[in-house]
Amino acid sequence: MSTERAIFAGGCFWCMVEPFEERPGILAVTSGYTGGHIEYPTYDQVLSKASGHTEAVEILFDNELISYDELLDIYWSLIDPTDADGQIYDRGANYRPVIFVESEEQRIAAQKSKIALEKSGIWDKPIVVPIEEAKTFWPAEEYHQQYYKKDPKRYQAMHKARERYLALQRFKGKFKFLRKNTR
């Protein structure tokens, strides 16, 4: 087994855990904060935007069972990559989408994946997700961990709303793409 780490930010971390955690080869998914200037930030500090942190998930995975490229594919399916100022209902820099890379190999894979998404025509606006060097990852408070199991009704409502929003955004992008090609 060869363990690797990936860190992705994509809005509220509650909706980022389950889609990764249920995959074979995923060893752990932790909700937390990264990219800020305060050690051991709390949720309230991050929410207030005073700490400079972004909500993110840290994924430990067995790269012999699931690849970083597969994780990138999952990540892109969970976010609106055209929105740099948060995701869905969660607005502000603390909810911005970011791919935090651990190595040059991850950086190259993330860049290739981003370019492929741009060329796909799925989205009608530019892909604006930055690829940044991984910084210290601080686990969030325990009540945030595996939230989808702790409050399944609330999680499902948020998750379904997020899925509907993303489906609508993708549809709008495809519709505009098709209209451009028929003129």
Fraction of residues in helix? 40-55%
- Which topology does CATH recognise? Peptide Methionine Sulfoxide Reductase, Chain A
The order of strands across the largest sheet is 7-6-1-3-2-8
Summarize the helix and strand pattern as letters.
EHEHEHEEEHEEHH
Beta-strand residue percentage: 15-25%
Write down the CATH class: Alpha Beta
**Structural category:** alpha+beta
Rounded mean pLDDT score: 87
Helical run tally: 6
Kindly report how far apart the N and C termini lie.
53 Å
Q: Biggest sheet, open or closed, and with what strands and sense?
A: 6 strands, mixed
Number of strands: 8
- Estimate nothing, just give the exact number of structural domains: 1
Name of the CATH homologous superfamily: Peptide methionine sulphoxide reductase MsrA
CATH architecture: 2-Layer Sandwich
Q: Which term fits the overall shape? A: globular
Low-confidence stretches: 175-183
Radius of gyration: 16 Å
Protein name: Peptide methionine sulfoxide reductase MsrA 1
Active site: 12
EC number: 1.8.4.11
Pfam families: PMSR
